[in-house]
Amino acid sequence: VTAKPTVVVVGAGAGGDAVAWGLRKQGFQGSILLIGAESERPYNRPYLSKQLLRQEITTEKTFLRPAQEYERRNIQLLLNRRVVRAHGSDRQLELQSGGRIPWDVLVLATGSEPRWLPDAPRRANVFTLRSLHDGLALQTAVAGAGRVMVVGAGFIGMEVAASARQLGKEVLAVEVAPIPMGRALGEEMGQIYARLHRSRGVDLRTGVSVSRWIESDDRVRAVELSDGTREEVDLILIGIGVSPRVALAEDLGLSLGEGGVRVDEALRAAPDVFCIGDIAAHQHPVYGRPLRVEHWQVAQRQGTGVATSVAGQPEPYREIPWFWSDQYDVNLQYLGNSRDFDETITRGNTEAEKFSIFYRKDGVIQAVLSINDARTGRFSRDLISRRTVVDGRILADPDSDLKGLAASA
Ligand code: APR
After folding, report:
1. Hey, how many other C-beta atoms are within 10 angstroms of the C-beta on 22?
2. Atom of ligand 1 nearest to the CA of 323
3. From CA 179, how far away is CA 135, in angstroms rounded?
4. Hey, which of 49, 156, 225, 236 would you mutate to test ligand 1's pocket, going by the most ligand atoms within 8 Å of its Cβ?
5. How many Å lie between the centroid of ligand 1 and the Cα of residue 298?
6. Which residues have CB under 6 Å of ligand 1?
7. What's the CA-to-centroid distance between 314 and ligand 1, angstroms?
8. Ligand 1 mutation target, pool 47, 50, 150, 175, most atoms within 8 A of CB
9. What is the spatial distance between Cα 39 and Cα 110, in angstroms, rounded to a whole number?
10. Which site in 88, 141, 144, 231 is 20 to 30 Å from 135, CA atoms measured?
């Protein structure tokens, strides 16, 4: 790599944006190209299912930075450009429009594609939610609807359900699993979320799926569920999960795994090729195994991490993954990864919707999930990073001083 290399970032989401800005912050002197398939500059995706959907903020407020800032920092923002192929032998990207773009260092931050139900008709009132474009279309549709249906009670479905309830809409949620939010939060929390949504008026049906779509005039008017019931609805949001976009990684022959691209501790997939965000199966130095996390905040933090590695020397990315979800007045914070645990410890009162759950393995905290209790998560970060073994009775006691404990660990 030359003294002033060209860094090309594919994907102008939170992750890609953080790479470009991080590089300039680190004093990087080379060229930076940030390529995005969408027509808008990077924006705050978490707003789409919440504040933007409820029309509490304007579209302008969703953007991460004023448009002219990119030019001012000499970051070339190429929007409306889709990269269709990556050529490893001559280090070039091919655009759908035909042009080619050479790189010295490549960062793939391509994110995920929402999954579509194979038998769902593509109709004007059937939506997925991923892009700002999707978000604005859904905003208009929900505003004009009486009864909203969400298919899939994961992050997207449940956040949209909550926002729609807050807007005074009737909401029907259909989830194939026995509980909502199960993929990310597990059985126990799934029960808690089921209660939470039902108590706020969501008609949540679990263990069922859509078996028939009843249409007229380019709209779905009703659905039939697998338990035989028929439901009239004004619009349908499909939120059944996402597929990471790994096609460019495949072009480059990068190693795939965990549903994404395998990257080392420094988020590197090959010499001068990095991956971040949804697509990165990151060999995490604290956990000692690959973690792939589909959350905005993780993509952004990893982007900053890669910028440090590219501007200097590749170094392990050590941050503990963190994400949140806001539904009604309930704030969820989740720190760490609990795929591997042998014990849970609850701190606080689950009935009162203010508590945290520690997930431990051999006494070491793997993750902390907090409901309306962000402090506990915040003070646990260092305990997780340093793999500190803490007496379970201390963790369980809501009055114990975790802050002091973390400071002295
Ligand atoms: N019918 C009903 N529900 C289904 C079906 C189906 N055919 N297929 C899957 N589901 C359910 C799953 O059981 C799961 O509960 O859809 C839910 C999908 O939830 P998530 O995996 O959380 O995905 P989603 O809500 O679409 O969120 C997409 O956005 O910010 C994020 O991190 C989040 O990566 C996630 C992404």
Report:
1. 20
2. 32
3. 26
4. 156
5. 18
6. 117, 151-157, 174-177, 182-184, 209, 239-242, 294-295
7. 34
8. 175
9. 15
10. 231
pLDDT at residue 367 tops 60: yes
Which residue spans within 176-299 are E strands per DSSP?
A: 203-206, 210-216, 219-225, 230-232, 235-238, 242-244, 256-257, 260-263, 268-270, 273-275, 280-284, 289-291
Each as own residue / partner, the long-range contacts of residues 226-235 (CB below 8 Å, 24 or more positions apart, any chain) are: 231/149, 231/172, 232/147, 233/147, 233/148, 233/149, 233/172, 234/125, 234/141, 234/144, 234/145, 234/146, 234/147, 234/148, 235/125, 235/126, 235/127, 235/141, 235/142, 235/145, 235/148, 235/149
pLDDT digits (tens, 9 = 90+) for 270-314: 999 999 999 999 999 999 999 999 999 999 999 999 999 999 999
Residue 239 CA, closest ligand 1 atom number? 26
Cβ–Cβ contacts within 10 Å for residue 186, how many?
18
**pLDDT on residue 408:** 81
Closest atom, ligand 1, to C-alpha of 154: 19
Exposed, middle or buried: residue 119 (CB in 10 Å: 0-12, 13-18, 19+)? exposed
